[in-house]
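Intended use. Records like the one below are meant for learning the mapping from a protein sequence to its folded structure. Do not use them to infer anything beyond what is encoded.
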Amino acid sequence: MRVLGGLEGHRMLDSPSWVVALLRQPWVMLTVRIGLVSAYFIGGVAKLLHFDAAAAEQVHFGLHPGWLWASIAIFVELVGSLCIIFARFTWLAAGALAALTLVAMFVANDFWRLEGAAHFIALNSFFEHLGLIAAFVMVTRLVDVGRRSSE
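Structure written out for the chain above:
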């Protein structure tokens, strides 16, 4: 069975040899993991440095108490990002970041209640967040495959 574009069974049959060679470079997956979590890490730092604004943002989206939700977001964004970057407890970090993203999808991107340009913007953001959740599943799988192939 082919999963994740041919990664099941460590095969990349559809990729040209130069793509396979590039993807096998040790720095590539680290760069990909950093890119995946960069917005979360930067967001966590910003929330930490501006905690009152972070708590107010949570209240704005109907999450009470704001300080608790802001604290949870900061912890998940910072610790989860570092775990994914260093490929440690990836499944747990990816799950936590995916859960945080799922909450954000429904509280901040309620496109079904909006009209016009606001509907369009929220709809796009909703599905961008869904793509991030899928990427967390993929990075968990790729880290797992990478570990098994190096054993």
